[in-house]
Specification:
The protein is α/β, with parallel strands linked by helices. It has two domains: 2-33 and 271-408, Alpha-Beta Complex (2-enoyl-CoA Hydratase, Chain A, domain 1); 42-267, Rossmann fold (3-Layer(aba) Sandwich). The protein is built from 13 helices and 18 strands. The protein has helices at residues 42-49, 58-62, 82-94, 116-123, 125-130, 158-162, 194-205, 217-229, 255-267, 300-304, 346-351, 366-372, 383-394; strands at residues 2-9, 16-23, 27-30, 68-73, 102-107, 132-135, 142-147, 153-157, 165-171, 174-175, 179-180, 233-239, 245-251, 278-284, 309-318, 356-360, 378-380, 399-403. A six-stranded parallel beta sheet has the order 3-18-14-15-16-17, covered by helices on one side. Strands 6-5-4-9-12-13 form a six-stranded mixed beta sheet, with helices on both faces. A two-stranded antiparallel sheet has the order 1-2. Helix 10 (300-304) links the parallel strand 14 and strand 15 (309-318). Helix 1 (42-49) crosses helix 3. The longest helix is centred in the N-terminal third of the chain and has 13 residues, at 82-94. It starts with a strand and ends in a 7-residue tail after the last strand.
């Protein structure tokens, strides 16, 4: 006999439930995040945008302006932007800015450029046919405008900087460097130059000024740079575990973002014992499981909680990685300015040094694993093989936790 559980799987590509089988002798508990009602109605979205926090309405901001740029986070983030963009475009049109004078720029930062299929997934076919859409380029079309208070050189996308109305749309998800995504982070690193990205990430890679679920020093530097760059209207979306909208907070890029953080802390909450001391934990990456380069976020919960896993217990990351290894020109590629194997980081040398570490993913290979993680990693493309390996290591009477959206847990 076996026990069966499901986890959400394959954001943007499958968006399905993956069925997992375990020995019936394992003591298993699944830890789901909250499931608030999704905001799908266009009128409800309008209501949210009609009541901005800390700024005039978008119509007032846009009045007598000639053009606008809307920055949207990329395909590695779960934000469904189509319905929100429809409302934003209508408001800009009503203010006198025609479609021909509106650009959508995808905030790829140091990630891969997006293609037409990606654009359609994020904004829908109607908007794709209607508006000029571009990828940000972290090496070209940049304008240097000085340094932040902490000395970060600010090279910003020139098309955005020259626009009279500047708007952003991004997901507020737990982030190990900036506390949460969204807000000013859509602008930096989203549409800044590679030198700006390097300066922004460098301290964080060394563990300076970072943290999960809080306003970090790195976040404050991002926001200082954003003041210099400009961001007129920030739209912050809190996705639920189905990638629908759990909350929308618009207006000032700091004030609206803080309200979104409060919502996110509620939506992404779990009632956990401070010391579960599980033998094995399965940490699933959905809805940020498009590429393997994002997999480290699966440890968010583990790094911010008490002792979830026993010493010498097993930590297993699960990711669809539908795009394979993925791409990050700053941190993820051989020769990248800040590339390192995570096995050399404090996470593995300190926090995980006595744990068994494993990865289950059907769409990567051993070379991909070794590119990011230590040689001691247990890697399996077949989940049943992973279960058999863990059973050989830990036996048939063990305590197991399944965390279906572990990257969403600060």
């Amino acid at each position: 006999m076996t026990q069966k559980f499901t986890v959400p799987w394959g954001a943007w590509y499958l968006d399905t439930d993956l069925s997992l089988e375990f020995p019936d002798s394992w003591q298993i508990k699944k830890y789901d995040i909250q499931k608030p009602e999704a905001i799908k109605n266009i009128e409800k979205i309008k209501e949210k945008l009609n009541n901005p926090i800390g700024t005039p309405t978008l119509e007032k901001i846009s009045k007598n302006k000639k053009n606008a740029v809307i920055v949207v986070d990329d395909i590695s983030r779960p934000t469904k932007a189509e319905n929100v963009l429809e409302v934003v475009l209508d408001k800009l049109n009503q203010s006198g800015i025609s479609d021909e004078n509106i650009d959508i720029i995808f905030a790829i930062g140091a990630h891969r450029p997006m293609n037409r299929f990606d654009f359609e997934k994020k904004v829908g076919k109607k908007i794709l046919e209607r508006i000029n859409i571009e990828n940000h380029h972290p090496y070209e079309n940049l304008k240097f405008i000085g340094n932040s208070k902490k000395g970060t050189p600010i090279h910003i996308n020139k098309t955005y900087y020259d626009a009279e109305v500047k708007i952003s749309i991004g997901a507020v998800l737990p982030h190990p460097l900036a506390g949460y995504g969204g807000g000013a982070k859509v602008i930096l690193p989203g549409i800044c130059g590679i030198s700006t990205l390097e300066a922004n990430h460098k301290a964080g890679v060394r563990g300076i000024g970072i943290g999960l679920g809080i306003v970090t020093e790195l976040r404050k530097d991002i926001e200082d740079a954003c003041r210099k760059i400009g961001l007129d209207f920030s739209i912050n979306i809190v996705p639920n575990m189905e990638r629908e909208i759990a909350g929308i907070f618009s207006g000032d890029f700091i004030k609206a973002h803080r309200k979104a953080m409060e919502c996110a802390k509620s939506v992404y909450s779990l009632s956990l014992s401070p010391n579960l001391n599980l033998d094995v934990g399965f940490f699933n990456l959905y809805p940020e499981d498009t590429e393997f380069s994002q997999a480290l976020k699966g440890l968010n919960l583990l790094l911010s909680s008490g002792r979830l896993i026993k010493r010498k217990g097993a930590v297993v990351l699960m990711t669809a990685s539908s795009e394979g290894r993925g791409f990050h020109s700053l941190q993820g590629e051989t020769g990248g300015r800040l590339y390192q194997n995570w096995g050399d980081s404090i996470i593995f040398k300190g926090i995980l040094k006595k744990n068994t570490f494993g990865i289950f993913s059907p769409n990567i290979n051993w070379a991909d694993v070794k590119h990011y993680y230590p040689d001691t990693t247990i890697f399996k493309k077949d989940f049943n093989e992973m279960v058999r390996t863990l059973e050989d290591l830990y036996g048939r009477n063990i305590s197991v936790g399944i965390f279906p959206c572990s990257n969403l847990l600060p």
